[in-house]
Amino acid sequence: MSTQSVCGAFIAVSVWVCGFGVSAVAADDSVVAFFPRTVIYPGDVIAESAIVDQKIRVLPGRAADAYPGRNDIVGKISRRTLMRGQPITTASLREKDAVMQGRTYTLIYQTLGLTVRGTGVPLQSVGAGEMVRVRNPDTGNIIVARAKADGTLVVEGP
Question: pTM for the full model?
Answer without folding.
Answer: 0.59
